[in-house]
Design brief:
The complex is a heterodimer of chains A (about 750) and B (about 150). Chain A contains 17 helices and 28 strands. Chain A is about 25% helix and about 25% strand. The longest helix of chain A has 28 residues. Chain B is of the alpha+beta class. Chain B is globular. Classes of the chains: A alpha+beta (about 750), B alpha+beta (about 150). The complex binds FE2/S2 (inorganic) cluster (2 copies).
């Protein structure tokens, strides 16, 4: 175990095109004859559709297609529950439901046509209070929920789309025997991913096949989705992802590719959709969900943690999408990285008529961690203990058994805490309007199938073909390093082809911080395959035994006979070499998880990443304005391959976490409509708000980690940031803010 | 009714015909065909569309294209000297100022204007000077370091 001191620099191969403006993002592409797509969205957030009439829109000159549910197969889709139609048929369930789509020669004509579509509705009661939606007599968002095809593990019931309970020991009895018991209720507002690139999709049909250029993080899910909703073979759909202008989870899941493909088919022309910033806020089925979180914990007076109870309610919004596992993920974060003998966690994911929630960078974790870490500080205060000492006593360590029965192999949780505390200068004398807060968290790796090819070019360079997607994180940039190491070449010798579903094998995409973890494994396997082929060819040519050969600096040498060698370029010029590989998917660690229900595979945390953040804030008591002055982030994310890339994830993730802590929130009206779907009132952190961030990597040798000891790095920085800020604010105020974000108004009120 | 005009972008004069309401970003991207400048919001909120007009930074999404006639317009495509990257472009790459790259064109343009205006800025000057450009990826750290490194070396 070592803390990384020496940065290993790695320049992005896609860097030059990005700094010169020559790189092409989806909205930059132009196809001959392309039309502009516009959507007609729902006029109500919950209503029955009684009539759709597109006659006038179709008659408008310049309109080449108007598409509704009648023009596509009548199928339901959705990642974990099939509960949604491409175009609303009988019911609209949130503001962003698409009722019809238009393709026209100009944007102005398309907009005019959209306005000419006549839709009649019978309004239905709107379910915006997702906690109340749990009640058995609540209006059902999906009256036909029982007929839906859905993942069996979800425990669906009425408006509840996912339910998880984690029970161990007897929490009630343990609480009754505790010296100190604390309780807290915390509420979080919905938050958005806000990639700076609004999404764009272009579809073009050639014969029976459609090519879709799209700003997606998950090209293979997009391919499957288009094939499903149009009921065509997957092999007839090709997804290409040009440069992707950020995702943060918001561009996960299949969605608008289907609408645009349907429009292009109807119009017999290429069709392009580019979202406005407003649409990027309200229409996408991906935001961080609002939550209600209640905790009750008990401890002995020496700080021994005896029990924790939690009740979590998560707002799923109108549709499930891929996010059905959120009740379990949230429940795991309610356990947090603590040793617990007695636990009772109940977590419900609930339909409402709000915008659908789904993966946004570390889904569910920042909210639950924010609440739990405040709760732990409250427990420390009730015990009269320093909050760091309480964590020292209660955090998991190597060999700990989690509440779900997972035995933790090599981890560095406590080491990250110590490092963060040291970096921030915990305990230092501070002005009375400043304080330091600390929070810890964890996050799993996601093992999944992946595949890759590596081929050699006649000039001795190589091309890596992978299904992995790049959303700007630099994760695919690691691939040339892995391949070069296997082949005795330089990373610069390799180019990448990684954004075309027709070219590369399946990959789950740029989500779950798993690109290095899974695609890295596949790429190494492909490189090893290629290496074998090269060694065979060289052995023949050099008349040497394979075992005597080594690959060094682009050549294959016979050990001990420096004059007997052949360059990889020479071999590549003469033969055809291409390796392929997938690697073996590592098994998730076992969890006993007795007493648990609603398991969707997260009851053990595979190769967990452990995180401790310490922040110093200044609070203006008169205005409630909080400024984060300094952040120390210590992470156990396994072995770090590319220091600049990994640091970049922490800088970006921490700053995103500060936004979520202090200013970012979607405000909804009484019917679940966005009130601030633009960047003036939805405030991101700017360069002038961003603090100094110090980073420490504690490199551990994690069992079941990804290639070369790697784990994920993209999502963890978001996990404990808001919690650390909250604990710092509470130290200044002597009072807690129970709502997220902790806006000036809320902070001011708490301080009164 | 379209209006004929000539826009001068990165040293080239482009004869164009534009609806009077066309904004500068749309004119440069869709009519002239230089797509390096990005649209992130269309409302002066994100800075992705930043261009220089006679050296002054403007949000091109909120500026009428016809008003730019007679001015020298500079976009991200005009920052490098042929194949040689400008020091800021190199520094952005070397110091982690680029991830997804969508904010990068606007960020580079703003940073160019900032350094022209104030060749030796403090860190605070840089942070305030770039606060009209949103980046969701980098946390601004690499960007600020890049601008300061170029300022220090010039
Ligand atoms: S596109 Fe002009 S400021 Fe955002
Ligand atoms: S690099 Fe992605 S928004 Fe700045």
């Amino acid at each position: 175990m070592a803390t990384v001191e020496e940065p290993r620099t790695f320049i992005r191969p896609d860097g030059k095109e990005k700094v010169t403006g020559t790189g092409r993002y989806t909205a930059d592409l132009v196809l001959a004859g392309e039309l502009v797509a516009k959507f007609r969205y729902a006029d109500h957030t919950h209503a029955r559709i009684t009539r759709i009439d597109v006659t006038k829109a179709r008659a408008l000159p310049g309109v080449l297609a108007v598409v509704t549910h009648e023009d596509v197969p009548d199928v339901l889709y959705g990642g974990m529950v099939k509960d949604r139609r491409l175009f609303a048929r009988d019911t609209v369930r949130f503001e962003g439901d698409v009722v019809a789509a238009v393709a026209a020669t100009t944007a102005a004509i398309a907009e005019q046509a959209v306005a000419l579509i006549e839709v009649d509705y019978e309004p239905l009661p709107v379910v915006t209070d997702f906690e109340a939606a749990l009640a058995d007599d609540s209006t059902l968002v999906h009256p036909a929920w029982e007929e839906y095809e859905g993942n069996e593990s979800l425990g669906r019931h009425h408006n509840t789309v996912g339910y998880t309970a984690i029970v161990k020991g007897d929490a009630d009895a343990a609480l009754a025997s505790a010296d100190v018991v604390v309780r807290g209720r915390y509420v979080t507002d919905p938050v958005q991913g806000v990639p700076i690139e609004p999404r764009a999709v272009i579809a073009q049909w050639q014969g029976d096949k459609v090519t879709v250029w799209t700003s997606t993080q998950v090209p293979y899910a997009a391919r499957g989705g288009v094939a499903h909703v149009l009921q065509i073979p997957e092999s007839h759909v090709r997804i290409i992802v040009p440069l992707l202008g950020g995702g943060f989870g918001a561009k996960c899941d299949f969605h608008f590719e289907g609408h645009v493909a349907a429009l292009a088919r109807a119009a017999r022309r290429p069709v392009k959709l580019v979202f406005s910033r407003r649409e990027e806020f309200f229409a996408v089925g991906h935001r961080r969900e609002g939550m209600v979180i209640e905790f009750e914990s008990g401890a002995r007076s020496d700080g021994t943690l005896l029990a924790r109870k939690a009740r979590l309610v998560l707002d799923k919004g109108a549709y499930c999408g891929e996010g059905g596992f959120f009740s379990e993920m949230a429940a795991m974060h309610a356990l947090g990285p603590y040793e617990l003998e007695n636990v009772n966690i109940q977590s419900s994911l609930v339909y409402s008529n709000n915008q659908p929630s789904s993966s946004i960078r570390a889904p569910t974790a920042p909210q639950v961690c924010w609440a739990l870490e405040q709760h732990m500080d409250e427990l420390a205060a009730a015990l009269g203990m320093d909050p760091i000492d309480l964590r020292r006593k209660t955090l998991i360590e190597t060999g700990s058994v989690t509440a779900t029965g997972q035995v933790l192999e090599q981890i560095a949780m406590k080491e990250t805490l110590e490092k963060a505390v040291e970096l921030i200068g915990y305990g230092q004398e501070l002005p009375e309007d400043e304080a330091i807060g600390v929070a810890v968290g964890w996050w799993p790796c996601f093992a999944a199938n992946s595949g890759a090819y590596v081929k050699l070019n006649p000039d001795g360079t190589g091309t890596i073909i992978t299904g992995a997607q790049e959303n700007g994180t630099g994760s695919v940039m690691a691939m040339p390093t892995y391949v070069a190491a296997e082949l005795g070449m330089q990373p610069e010798d390799f180019s990448m082809l990684y954004q075309d579903t027709d070219a590369a094998p399946y990959d789950m995409g740029s989500c779950g911080s798993q690109t290095t973890f899974n695609s890295g494994r596949a790429v190494i396997a492909a490189a090893v395959d290629l290496r074998d082929q090269l060694l065979d060819a060289a052995a023949e040519q050099l008349e040497a035994s394979r075992d005597d050969l080594e690959l060094v600096s682009g050549s294959i040498l016979v050990k001990g006979s420096p004059d007997k060698s052949v360059t990889i370029a020479e071999l590549a010029g003469e033969g055809t070499f291409h390796g392929k590989g997938a690697g073996e998917v590592p098994f998730a660690p076992e969890a006993l998880a007795e007493g648990c229900v609603g398991q969707s595979g997260l009851e053990s945390f595979h190769a967990p990443q452990l995180i401790a953040h310490a922040v110093r804030v200044r609070v203006d008591r008169d205005t409630g304005v909080v400024r984060v002055l300094q952040v120390a982030a210590a992470h156990d994310c396994g072995v770090i391959l590319n220091r600049m890339g990994a640091d970049g994830q922490v800088y970006g993730g921490v700053v995103m976490g500060i936004g979520q802590a202090l200013s970012e929130r979607t405000q909804l009206d009484a019917e679940g409509r966005h009130l601030n779907a633009h960047l003036t009132d939805y405030k991101l952190v700017t360069a002038s708000d961003a603090p100094q961030i110090d980073i420490a990597w504690i490199e551990t040798d994690t069992l079941n980690a990804g290639p070369k000891g790697s784990k994920g790095v993209g999502e963890p920085p978001c996990v404990p940031t808001a919690g650390a800020v909250a604990n710092a604010i509470a130290r200044v105020l002597g009072a807690r803010v129970h709502q997220l974000p902790m806006t000036p108004e809320r902070v001011w009120k708490a301080g009164q | 009714m379209k209006v004929a005009a000539t826009l001068s972008v990165n040293g080239f004069a482009y004869p164009v015909e534009l609806d009077p309401g066309t904004n500068l970003l749309a004119a440069v991207r869709d009519v002239i065909g230089l797509t390096g400048s990005k649209e992130g919001c269309d409302d002066s909120e994100c800075g992705a569309c930043m261009m220089l007009l006679d050296g002054q930074p403007v949000n091109a999404c909120s500026y009428l294209a016809l008003q730019a006639e007679g001015s020298e317009i500079t976009t991200v495509e005009g920052l490098a000297d042929g194949d040689t990257l400008a020091p800021l472009q190199v520094a952005f790459l070397e110091l982690g100022g680029v991830q997804c790259g969508f904010c990068t064109p606007g960020m580079l343009v703003s940073a160019t204007a900032l350094l022209a205006d104030n060749p030796s800025p403090t860190e605070d000057d840089v942070r305030i000077g770039l606060s009209g450009n949103l980046c969701r990826c980098t946390g601004y750290d690499g960007i600020v370091k890049a601008v300061l490194s170029v300022a220090g070396s010039s």
